[in-house]
Amino acid sequence: MALAMITVLALFVGLLVLLPILSVASSVFVPASDALDHVLSVVLVDVVANTVVMMIVVAIATAVIGTTTAWLVAMCRFPGRRLFSWLLLLPMAMPGFIIGYAYTDFLMFTGPVQTALRSTFGWSKSDYWFPDVHNVGGVSIMLSLVLYPYVYFIVRAAFLEQSTNAFEVARTLGHGTWSCFFRIALPLARPAIAAGVALALMETLADFGTVQYFGVHTFTTVIYRTWFGMSDKAAAGQLATMLLGFVAMLLLAERAARSRRRFHRAGRKEIPMQLVELRGARAALAMAACGLPVFFGFVLPVAILVNLHVAGGDDLFGGRFVGLAANSLALAVGAGVVVTAVAALVAYALRVARHPRERGLLRLSTLGYALPGTVVAVGILGPLGALDQVINGVAQSLMGAPVGLIVSGSVAALVFAYLVRFLAVATNTLEAGLEKIPVNLDHVARTLGCSPARVLTEVHVPLLWRSSLTALVLVFADVLKELPATLIVRPFNMETLAVRVYQLASDERLAQASTGALTIVALSLLPLIVLTRSMDQRSAS
Q1: Looking at the domain covering 2-20+34-125+133-305+326-540, what would its CATH class be?
Q2: DSSP H or E stretch at residue 441
Q3: Distance CA 528, CA 530 (A)
Q4: How far is CA 175 from CA 180, 183, 207, in A?
Q5: Among 211, 322, 378, 391, which residue has the least CB neighbours within 10 Å?
Q6: Where are the domains of the chain?
Q7: How far does Cα 12 stand from its chain's mean position?
Q8: Can you tell me the mean pLDDT for 393-420?
């Protein structure tokens, strides 16, 4: 009975999380409006073209950078290898819209690069050509610089877990280092590469701040403008449904790339992996290959932001700024706790669910991570707004006055948006931790009289503390950087650092925006410390 209750509760949570998705999908039954016709006839081709180009460029760039650096750090020995193993994760702390702001100031006509060129060569504006980053190519490069760590982190773990025996056999058959890489390591790591690239592409589809600032039309910007600029929620929902189609194709492509392949070690005890020694020019190339992504993805943007802050930081850096930081931290910590607790329930239900339909529904509840924040916001505010109308109708009849937007205009609505958006992050982390706990341990506890709830709380939770902490800090970082859902769903009297930075940058006040941007980057370093320790422990095990 207790097991059934846990499953039912998890399924209820799954249906609740699916509600925004169903709400968005239901918009297809609404007749097309003039606003939708205008969008389809004027900007749809541009939107689809930009989305496809961004996905292709980001997929190739993140796969090449992430896989190359993961191989060098995991399988080769060169100066600085241990340092690069965690430095390569630093760009993950840099949100895409913030790195876009930094490079805009750095590369603009009055920025330091072009100013130095004119000063050095005595050029005027018409004497030279300089590339413009405010286009789909520039956005793709910005996003690739901060998203390659998704591929690096997953693929490095895959390389470390590959069988040493396979490489030893290949060497005895006359295969060299690069032959082993292309014939053994790369094919075995293909599922990990596909998973990492899929995560990077989901973040690309979800991006709002970068494409909005760079003036590139994508689904997220068009959805936002249709809703708030044209005041047409139905058309926004229909556009969000089109974006869901891109997400579905992406998920199907990721599944097809993996082709249900599973690779396991041939034995439990293996000799340590023999690292490839790199010297001279090869060592220098390895250091450059690992150092350049870190420099352009983290070091240089941070230096630009620091310079902007010193030149003219946010004049609200005081009591109000502390309030913005407190709002961001409270939302990130609160959402992290809620999402991690719900994810533990869902992950455990996936472990004990017997019926394929139950597992399928629970899996569907984790699709929110593939949805951009704008889609989640559209899906949430519709049902919650309808609930507010019901509540206000009851209040009007009982008290003679409405009570306002007590649901859709509350912090709870924003936390619910984060739950929908980031449940998959925490669930996948906890599910991976549960897979390391033998099922026999559950059986022993049950034979000793423990209920499923006690097995979860007294057996699994103590063993999952590291996975739970990792899940919490990952959600913490994602919430801290989330812009579109926060911008749309937040209560009217509530601002966060991300919203403040976006508003200042939209007004071209990049120097003032740098203060909040640096704060977001500094706070986002916390999960990287946890991830680095997790990687070190996995390497040592």
Answers
A1: mainly alpha
A2: helix 439-447
A3: 5
A4: 6, 9, 43
A5: 322
A6: 2-20+34-125+133-305+326-540
A7: 25
A8: 80
